Hints:
The structure holds two protein chains of two kinds.
Chain A: H1 3-41, E1 45-46, E2 52-53, H2 59-62, E3 66-68, E4 75-77, H3 79-111, H4 115-130, H5 133-144, H6 149-156, H7 170-195, H8 199-206, H9 211-222, H10 224-239, H11 243-249, H12 256-264, H13 270-300
Helix pairs in contact in A: 1-13, 3-7, 3-10, 4-7, 5-7, 5-11, 7-10, 7-11, 8-9, 10-13, 12-13
Chain B: H1 14-35, H2 52-59, H3 61-92, H4 101-113, H5 116-136, H6 147-170, H7 175-182, H8 187-216, H9 219-224, H10 232-239, H11 246-270
Helix pairs in contact in B: 2-11, 3-6, 3-8, 4-6, 6-8, 7-8, 8-11
Amino acid sequence: MSPAEENAIRSSARTGWLLSLPALLILFVAAAGPLIIVVIYSFLTPGQHGNVVWDFSTDGWVGVLWSKDIFTGEWALADAHLTIFWRSLWLSFLTTAFTFLVGFPTAWFIATRPAKERALWLFLITIPFWTNLLIRTYAINEVLRKEGLMNTVLMGLGITDTPIEVLYTQTAIFIGMTYVYLPLMVLPLFAAIDRFDMKLLEAGYDLYASRMQVLRRVILPIVKPGIIAGSILVFVPSLGAYVTPRVLGGGKQMMIGNFIELQFLQGKNWPLGAALSMLLLVVVMAALLVYVRYANKGSSHG
Amino acid sequence: MAERGFQVARLPGFATTAIIVFVALYLPIFTLVAYSFNASTSLAVWGGFSLDWYAKAWDNSQVKDATIRSLIIASFAAVISTTVATMAALGTTRRRAFKGQTFIYVMINQPLMVPEIVTAVALMIVFGLIKVWLTSIGMGGLTTGLGYLILAHSAFCIPFAYLPIRARLEGMDLTLETAAADLYATPWQTFRRVTLPLLAPGMIAGAMLAFVISLDDVVITEFVKSGGQDTLPTYMLGQMRRQLTPEINAVSTMLLGLTVVLLTAFFLLTRKKT
């Protein structure tokens, strides 16, 4: 390589950095940088009225799983915390599984529409995805409430005499999360099915495979990258959900997101809140790493 | 060719499931919109068509203030994020891969990966520290104002603005710029007269996405705002703790309408010409 070429490459890289600098600066100040402060805060001592005292302590991290008795000062396994973690994981898992169960047929349906119609069906899936999450959660609240649409219909049909009280239960959170995160499952599944060669189905049927066999042995293995993408895209925001459990869980059925908020408000234990935030971040990052690894594998297959 | 009556791509129950999904997706939203026109105070009983709740929402000074605040923040966030995202897109595309490019990608997409509640808590802490520091050096006047919210919104809007702009840049024909250079245009003239006009649809699309994303944000705003700085979504979240009236439905419907208009425009702008 000639010195002139080398210079050109170097100056091109410098321009690249310079042009990206303003964006990086904003992101560092108001997105990535503050995360470092959270790590620091997780190792400090809680202040009397919230905030922190600048004394090093690992109590924030210990407090994730254990809680200190106010009178005896002894640490005991915190059942309440475990319940919240378990609820978060379980509801996120259920949401992911159920969105796949209904999302797969939906994505298949869209992908097998005539080309002209397809854009419209996709648009119909995308619109709810971009509309306000709070409004969509509130819409579900209206459907599920005691005197809401669901109970009106059920009682009108004579299926039940007394209204079913679903609101402010885990079921309500599950229904709400399935509703708000469904498009995140359908879109990557659609992308995978759209690339699927339908001739493979004919080959399967020609070899006397049943529909179930074709689905299990031909379709699902090939669209697997889409399934993994969709699952991660649903699981990650479910785990960090804050608005949906707050509006549909009514403060009693907390998930990790609400639990973190609690530490910064009434709980007045900022280091614990900071430790919980970092824990959530680590779990989410691990899930995303799995995704990136699978996504790269998928693309190398073409 | 498949036999008549046997369509290979058809799987039993799939179409039915899909139709149920579409109905379930839209029914709650339609119910919410319908009840915003309900004359009755109750969310349960239909009392005839009326626009009363829209009039009430319009007269509610809290709603009006929150709406104006939301629009101001979203406008600033959209302009700022689109500007810096355009520069970053120009810096990271159409040149030989350079050292640190992956780092720039990761930083730009970072807001998409970190759970909102974590960013919200982090910003609350950092902005709190900044405010204490500003007060201590006698600049307490800077501790209020919408600047903090605008900064926070600008940051999480950057990836949304960046993606359509980058897509547009990557699909752009380089020959036009080469032609301009051949005709003795300076690099700045080429950028101003050739690149920028070609890039404009991507920038407008990016700005609209950023605007919608900013307008919809609840979690980060809820933690960053100071007292009396409610945006429309945080105002609604606060109301949901109290007795609900169809006024919330009217406010939701207006916000929903604005989003749908912007999104439709976005899709028309980014639609591939075939």
